[in-house]
Design goal:
heterodimer, A: 119 residues, mainly beta, six-stranded mixed beta sheet, B: 108 residues, seven-stranded mixed beta sheet
């Protein structure tokens, strides 16, 4: 059974940093591209960042490019999102999501970790 | 950036009704179009990928169709457990993904 467990969320002041992690199990991690998708309270889904199975291809939404960095460690079956210069509009539930390589859809979702950016 | 629109933004239908949700891309896209269901307070769930392929385990009353700029999600016979918000999602090369704004489905 696929399990994706996010951690690292919390309350942070504007301008500060936070690092999210996702522990993956139940599947062959390096068969999948990985993504972060977020959902602000009461709002829709927003893709944030993606990383290919071998970390060669990385992409970001315009709203986070230059502030967020996605990375993965295939040896540890883990995914990370380093979030710098956080803004109030980054407040959301952040989901760790799998994509079968080069299939371009989001197959399995974690439960999410909440991030609140507020002074 | 290719924008996605969904219509309607919300709908209310009776149990057993046929429900159709439309997703429109601002310009022609590949068939890398997926549909998700998010029930209140729950995690999104993949229903359909590659525009029309039903994910294993998803009830057959769900179907997807379309190509180019216009795609549809159809629920052939609405059930109470289908109350949810439905999102389309497309892929743009290179490495850009966009969700539609969502369609909220309720039971009348």
């Amino acid at each position: 059974e696929v399990q994706l467990v996010e951690s690292g969320g919390g309350l942070v002041q504007p301008g500060r940093s936070l690092r999210l992690s996702c522990a993956a199990s139940g599947f062959i991690f390096d068969d999948y591209a990985m993504h972060w998708v977020r959902q602000a309270p009461g709002k829709g889904l927003e893709w944030v960042a993606s990383i290919s199975w071998n970390s060669v291809s990385i992409g970001y939404a315009d709203s986070v490019r230059g502030r967020f960095t996605i990375s993965r460690d295939n040896a540890k079956n883990s995914l990370s999102l380093q979030m710098n210069s956080l803004r109030a509009e980054d407040t959301a539930l952040y989901y760790c999501v799998t994509e079968p390589t080069e299939q371009y859809y989001f197959e399995s979702w974690g439960q999410g970790t909440p991030v609140t950016v507020s002074s | 950036d290719i924008q996605m629109t969904q219509s309607p933004s919300s709908l209310s239908a009776s149990v057993g009704d046929r429900v159709t949700i439309t997703c429109r891309a601002g310009q022609g896209i590949t068939n890398y179009l997926a549909w998700y269901q998010q029930k209140p307070g729950k995690v999104p769930k993949l229903l359909i990928y590659a525009a029309s392929t039903l994910k294993s385990g998803v009830p057959a009353r769900f179907s997807g169709s379309g190509s180019g700029t216009d795609f549809t999600l159809t629920i052939s016979s609405l059930q109470p457990e289908d109350v949810a918000t439905y999102y389309c999602q497309k892929y743009n090369s290179p490495l850009e993904f966009t969700f539609g704004p969502g369609t909220k489905v309720d039971i009348k």
